Amino acid sequence: MENAIPAMVIGALMLIASAFVTHGNLKSYDQLGESLRQMEQRLSERSQSQLTVVDASLDGGLDTLSVTLRNDGQTRLSTFERMDLIVVYETGSGEVRKWLPFEPGALSADAWTVDSIDDDAFEPGLVNPGETAHLTVELAEPAAAGTTHRIVIVSEAGAVASAPFTS
């Protein structure tokens, strides 16, 4: 009889501990399931996004790049500040690799903006599927003449468009 009470206390503690462990495991599985759902949603959005650089050309001063970007996917481009624009180009002092931020208004050096969107009747200001955006990229250093450079544009959903341009 003297062993029965401690055995009951130990049994009760083991039941309580197993309940906590089970609760922790269930919560972990729930978090894992939620992260898998979010990953599936991102992959679905990425598969429905497709961008194409139709044209990229430098102006006469070799410091302003005009880019024509077509949305060939099924999702719209709406948050330009969340897009990545990277230029890789040669200058007189060597190769430059830069990520450039989006600027909605007047352009400063090493930034880009959306000048216009062709046939922008539906949802003005957004690049819907099938629409074409005209971007202006202002480079801080002019590109070296007679060389080939590259621009890479990545949407928020992960679609990548890349194209060479020459000076």
What this model shows, in words?
The protein is of the alpha+beta class and 167 residues long. It folds into two domains: 1-47; 51-166, Immunoglobulin-like. It contains one helix and eight strands. The strands form two sheets. Strands 1-2-6-5 form a four-stranded antiparallel β-sheet, with no helix packed on it. It has a four-stranded antiparallel β-sheet with strand order 4-3-7-8, with no helix packed on it.
Task: Set down the secondary structure blueprint.
Blueprint lengths: L3 H44 L3 E8 L5 E8 L12 E8 L2 E7 L10 E7 L14 E7 L9 E7 L5 E7 L1
Antiparallel strand pairs: 1-2, 2-6, 3-4, 3-7, 5-6, 7-8
Output the keywords.
Immunoglobulin-like, 35% strand, 1 helix, 167 residues
